[in-house]
Design goal:
The complex is a heterotrimer of chains A (about 625), B (about 110) and C (about 220).
Chain A lengths: L18 H5 L4 H30 L9 H36 L7 H19 L1 H7 L30 H29 L12 H33 L12 H35 L6 H14 L15 H29 L8 H22 L3 H7 L3 H31 L5 H27 L16 H31 L37 H7 L29 H17 L5 H20 L5
Helix pairs in contact in A: 2-3, 2-4, 2-15, 3-6, 3-8, 3-13, 4-6, 4-17, 6-7, 6-17, 7-8, 7-9, 8-9, 8-11, 8-13, 9-10, 10-11, 11-13, 11-14, 13-14, 14-15, 17-18
Chain B lengths: L11 H24 L1 H5 L1 H23 L7 H24 L11
Chain C lengths: L26 H27 L13 E2 L5 E2 L5 H26 L3 H31 L8 H33 L7 H27 L9
Antiparallel strand pairs in C: 1-2
The chains are: A mainly alpha (about 625), B mainly alpha (about 110), C mainly alpha (about 220).
């Protein structure tokens, strides 16, 4: 069947490339790019914070930074990486790819989607504004207001009595704002995935990446309320004198830990499941085989999400909960290893007997599997409370965290970047440089983090800004720091590759990897309306079947993917500034706490007014 | 997007009024437990009674005013699962957060 | 169908341009029920904290027992069950009013729609009035946010509930004014229905709070 003439379609009001078109965009692809660029920038910031940490720890008894500044560095490194890098990098892919993969033209609530991004940016900027305010502070040093109580902000250290300046407030309020962004996106993607699938795309025909995203969004909407409440209590303690975490007045600092980890543990699954989803797309494509046991992989993801709510106190084994609680949580924690292992075996089975194509995305996906196994093994070790008594607050946990979050999430996200860059930009990233980036990063990652297992069992505690030579930790710290600098260098290769390829990379075409899912059935980059015709889906590999038919015989490559039905009058949502204005109102509202000496009521009132003005304008403007 | 105009079932208003009456009676009964000394002395029974009455009120509003009884099953799932999760977490956190350093000293 | 101009807003879509939804459910309701599920966990955490801290206040005023203030005067148990029962009933009546209003919008009965949605807002404001009165009374009797655990947990829990009610009243009045300017047709009644879901949710949260904060007194034997 010859390709039909281009269908008449609506043109967007602003399809230009000026700043205004970016500020008013409601297009999921542009919002995805906004998330991606912002997130990667913060990834680099977090990386610099890590390099500062490793520089300080490279030799014993160094004083490159003060102890207080060091506390700030590890706090912001973790907070930045978790909330401002990994989560929004995932969001970038959710935004760009989910509608394409399910055969939709956008998300369910496009303006809410834009709102999510602008609120994310507000929270990110507010949280990092300590740099600016610190510079104007009477006390010298741009790090004087850096949040420094750990990314987990344990009470009572975070209380006003022990952290009198605004440092904790930046962290606390920034995180609260980021929560709003994540929640809004959560509702949006749940409705999108459930309700906007192309005809014939049943739930079990969804790509695994889409399924993992759905689980993640449910985790977000059910876990974030707990940290919202925890942060509300901390805000009230710090600003209004309540007693939620103050033991002197009957409060229990452990309540914070419960609320935080009730959120925090689902959060780590929020961080890893998208990467697992990406790997579940990349491995089959580059093995030229369907994902082995896809229903099991999906089901395991769901189980991981559910069980993730039952393990939180394994972060609290050393707080004296008692043997009954400890045992219960140990059991649930060990149980979670099972669905995780199921996924790993299915990935390996996907590779088995496949025609392996060793391109850069495949390297990162394979690296993910290997490194995540190591991280999972160390994790299952400290699932045992008596073992955890030794591991807790030692570098052994740091090793575990980084194997799963760097070896896992980051490697998975890079697999996604290399895999989907051609779709998003229309050009290929250089494969040779990509492989160089991979090998450097893989080697450097292991050089940096594997020795931390040894440091941990050798007794090196976390969060210390220096150590004595007599401790015996010199060698491995030096090795880890050298590895960290090599890791930084590997990023430079990626950045060079990225910027060169965006401008002058080889043209990608629609389907450079000969893949199976719907995003490859449209142009690279896709047009504003994504698909000329919404496809009708008859299997879990719709594009593969369209190309090769059910029996593998190749057909004309760019054949329309089974689209039937009358020509569609495509209507797209209008660009609008109101989501940004509403987000700005939220930012102004919270800024009132941040500016020392600011007229609090006036600024808060202004924030509320801007928020309501933006909100009402948004609600009363027609979507399309 | 989709604008479902659910034409309300005939007799719907009568049901709403009936539910309101039951809610009123239950609220009155709940308030009465405060005045009946026997309930105040047997607090375990009071706890059970209040929990039952509260649950019935909760259920009536959810089923008949929020129309969950007649609406899509998915709404029920996406509401009840987090509700159960919240209840379970409440119970566990209450059990785990039991510093009894200076308990009930005022009583 | 000619391509439209590149400037100016796009024409309003005919119904055929929106493909039917995969679950046969409207986006707004699907998303909103999910939001309510999420809000269960929000209030659940607040209530869990209240329950965890019951009976742990180191000083008064107390919820269900008398307390002698430092200056000597005695503050009786500070929660007033009879009065709060009335305000709880007011909120229940407001739920009834809401569902009547929805009925009016769905049947295109302007009088019923406008009257009952306005009444819902009025009942909501009445409830908020009771709350303000109660908060003021408590404050004057020495119960503040910082006084003790009861003050902290009570005011934050009921305060956030009250904030939810206030947003609901704003939403109701917005719908009322919008309908006055241009009647909301039955095809758009889903917007009223969504507001109704929110309003009923706020009501059922109060049912739980009323039961566990007001009606179940703090015992001296431990437990609830």
């Amino acid at each position: 069947m010859a390709t039909a003439a281009p269908l008449p379609q609506a043109e967007p009001a602003y399809s230009g490339s000026g700043v205004w078109s970016w500020l008013t965009t409601v297009d999921h692809k542009r919002i995805g790019i906004l998330y991606g660029v912002t997130a990667f920038s913060f990834f680099l910031v977090g990386g610099l914070e890590a390099l500062a940490i490793r520089a300080q720890l490279m030799r014993p008894e160094q004083h490159l930074v003060t102890g207080s500044a060091f506390n700030g560095l590890f706090t912001m490194h973790a907070t930045t990486m978790i909330f401002l890098a990994i989560m929004p990098l995932g969001a970038a892919f959710f935004n760009y790819m989910i509608p394409l993969m399910i055969g939709a033209r956008d998300v369910a609530f496009p303006r809410l989607n834009a709102f999510s991004y602008w609120v994310f940016l507000s929270g990110a900027l507010l949280m990092n504004s300590f740099f600016v305010v610190g510079a104007f502070d009477a006390a010298p040093g741009w790090l004087s207001q850096i949040p420094n109580t750990g990314w987990f902000g344990y009470a009572p250290l975070t209380e006003r009595q022990f952290s009198p300046n605004l440092a904790v407030d930046y962290w606390m309020i920034g995180l609260q704002i980021l929560g709003v962004s994540s929640l809004a996106a959560g509702f949006n993607f749940i409705v999108t995935i459930l309700n906007m699938r192309a005809p014939g795309m049943t739930m079990m025909r969804l790509p695994v990446f889409v399924w993992m995203t759905l689980v993640v969004q449910f985790l977000v909407v059910f876990a974030f309320p707990m940290i919202t409440v925890g942060l509300i209590f901390l805000t009230f303690d710090r600003f209004f004198g309540t007693n939620f975490y103050i033991s002197g007045n009957g409060g229990d600092p452990l309540l914070w830990q419960h609320l935080f980890w009730l959120f925090g543990h689902p959060e780590v699954y929020i961080l890893i499941l998208p990467a697992m989803g990406i790997v579940s797309e990349v491995l089959p494509t580059f093995s030229r085989k369907p994902l082995f046991g896809a229903p099991f992989v999906i089901f395991s993801g769901i189980v991981i999400g559910l069980l993730g709510f039952g393990v939180w106190s394994h972060h609290m084994f050393t707080t004296g909960l008692g043997p009954v609680a400890d045992s219960a949580f140990a059991v649930t924690t060990m149980l979670i290893a099972i669905p995780t292992a199921v996924k790993i075996f299915n990935w390996i089975a996907t590779l088995w007997g496949g025609h392996i194509v060793l391109k850069t995305p495949m390297y990162f996906a394979l690296g993910f599997v290997a490194l995540f196994i190591i991280g999972g093994l160390s994790g299952v070790m400290h699932a045992s409370p008596p073992v955890d008594l030794h591991h807790q607050d030692s570098y052994f946990v740091v090793a575990h965290i980084h194997y799963v979050l760097f070896g896992g999430s980051i490697f998975g996200l890079f697999a996604g970047i290399y895999y989907w860059f051609p779709k998003m930009s229309g050009r290929m990233l250089d494969d040779g440089l990509g492989k160089l980036h991979f090998w450097l990063m893989f080697i450097a990652m292991n050089v940096t983090f594997f020795p931390m297992h040894f440091l941990g069992v050798d007794g090196m505690p976390r969060r210390i800004f220096t150590y004595y030579s007599s401790d015996g930790w010199d060698t491995w710290n030096l090795v880890a720091s050298l590895g960290a600098f090599l890791l930084g260098g590997s990023m430079l290769i990626f950045l060079f590759n990225f910027f060169r390829s965006v401008r002058a990379g080889a043209p990608a075409g629609n389907d450079p990897w000969d893949a199976a899912t719907l995003e490859w059935a449209t142009t690279s980059p896709p047009p504003l309306h994504d698909f000329d015709k919404i496809p009708v889906v008859t299997s879990s590999r719709p594009f593969w079947d369209a190309k090769y038919g059910a029996h593998g015989a190749p057909k004309a490559k760019q054949e329309a993917v089974g689209g039937h039905g009358a020509a569609e009058h495509i209507v797209l949502p209008n660009p609008t500034i109101w989501p940004l204005v509403t987000a700005l109102g939220i930012l102004i509202f919270w800024t009132s706490f941040m500016l020392p000496g600011a007229p609090v009521f006036e600024v808060t009132g202004l924030g509320v007014l801007v928020l309501l003005f933006g909100l009402f304008s948004w609600l009363f403007e027609p979507l399309e | 997007m989709e604008a479902h105009a659910h034409a309300p079932a005939p007799g719907a208003v009568r049901n709403y009024i009936l539910v309101l009456c039951i809610l009123g009676v239950l609220t009155f009964l709940e308030c009465m437990t405060y005045f009946i000394p026997w309930f105040q002395e047997h607090r375990q029974v009071l706890f059970v009674a209040i929990s039952i009455m509260g649950t019935v009120k909760f259920g009536l509003v959810v089923a008949f005013y929020m129309h969950l009884r007649h609406d899509a099953v998915f709404y029920r799932e996406v509401f009840i699962i987090p509700l159960v999760l919240a209840i379970v977490i409440t119970i566990i956190v209450t059990m785990l957060t039991s510093i009894r350093l200076i308990p009930y000293q005022h009583l | 169908m000619a391509a439209h101009a590149t400037t100016g807003p796009v024409a309003h879509a005919p119904a055929a341009a929106h493909p039917p939804t995969s679950m046969g459910l409207p986006h707004l309701k699907l998303g909103f029920w999910t939001f309510l599920g999420s809000d269960c966990l929000f209030f659940g955490s607040l209530i869990a904290t209240y329950m965890a801290y019951r009976g742990h206040s180191l000083t008064g005023p107390y919820s269900h027992s008398p307390w002698t203030a430092p200056d000597g005067h005695v503050v009786n148990h500070i929660l007033n069950v009879p009065v709060t029962s009335i305000s709880a009933f007011v909120l229940l009546v407001s739920s009834f009013a809401m569902v009547m209003a929805l009925n009016g919008f769905q049947t295109n009965n302007r009088g019923r729609a406008r009257l009952w949605i306005f009444l819902t807002a009025i009942f909501g404001l009445t409830f908020l009035g009771f709350q303000s009165f109660e908060f003021t009374e408590f404050y004057l009797n020495g119960l503040s946010l910082s006084q003790n655990l009861f003050g902290s947990t009570f005011f934050v829990l009921t305060g956030f509930h009250g904030t939810h009610v206030a947003f609901g009243v704003l939403w109701l009045l917005t719908l009322f004014v919008a309908d006055l300017r241009k009647p909301i047709p039955p095809s758009k009644a889903i917007n009223v229905e969504t507001c109704g879901l929110y309003w009923h949710f706020v009501d059922i949260v109060w049912i739980v709070i009323f039961a566990f904060v007001y009606l179940i007194p703090v015992t001296e034997k431990g437990g609830f």
